[in-house]
Amino acid sequence: MKARANPVYCSIDTIDLAHATKLIQSVAGGPKPAVGGIKLGLEFFLAHGAPGVRYAFPTPVRATGVGFFLDLKLHDIPNTVAGGIRAVVDLAPTFITIHASGGREMMKAAVEEGGSQAAKLNVARPKLLGVTVLTSLDRSDLESTGVNADPSDQVLRLAALAHESGLDGVICSPHEIAALRKQCGPDFVLMVPGIRPVGSAANDQKRAMTPRQAVDLGATNLVVGRPIYQAADPRAAAEAIAREAGVNDL
Predict the structure, then answer these.
(1) CA-wise closest residue to 171 among 133, 203, 206
(2) What pTM did the predictor assign?
């Protein structure tokens, strides 16, 4: 039986470059990483930019096969978003996020630019993921912005648009996994935040689920932040979460 790939992406939620570097080395370094990938988001990127990415997540660590999720959540006119994608392709991210609510033309422009720039630089094409409904939002939050829909319905609507526009997948809460897998097929990437190991606090995630529940429903990858980086031993915490998700060859 083929071993299950590690689906856990550790979210590095800090602007402290030294701390981020140490944390990445802890969970992703060595011959056998404890995570499947590293997520660096807007907070880190605004503070340190591309040089910070290269410093905190250097080639020797990435050479182990650990994925790189650049979570920028781009949302602007098509030309500007395409330019944003073009600016970061040389970092060779595995995934980049854009807001699906930016519309079809914006998403198509991002897909075209990502493929074109990757070919020009001879790097792997980044997979583009659409942000649907943030896991910190519930129905009342959506209504306050003028969206009169249940979060799950809005996620399905935006995911369908992202799929039609050529995106590789979406960000979704655990509670939309099954419906999205049915709607978008087996190859559509479902990157799932709001993951909390058994016994941990939900914090501000209003639609959370355990690692094993999410994987069994069809999640491709799991985004985990605080349960790893706030642990006394981040590597041990990451390994425990991976085992909980069904990874046995750590």
Answers:
(1) 133
(2) 0.92
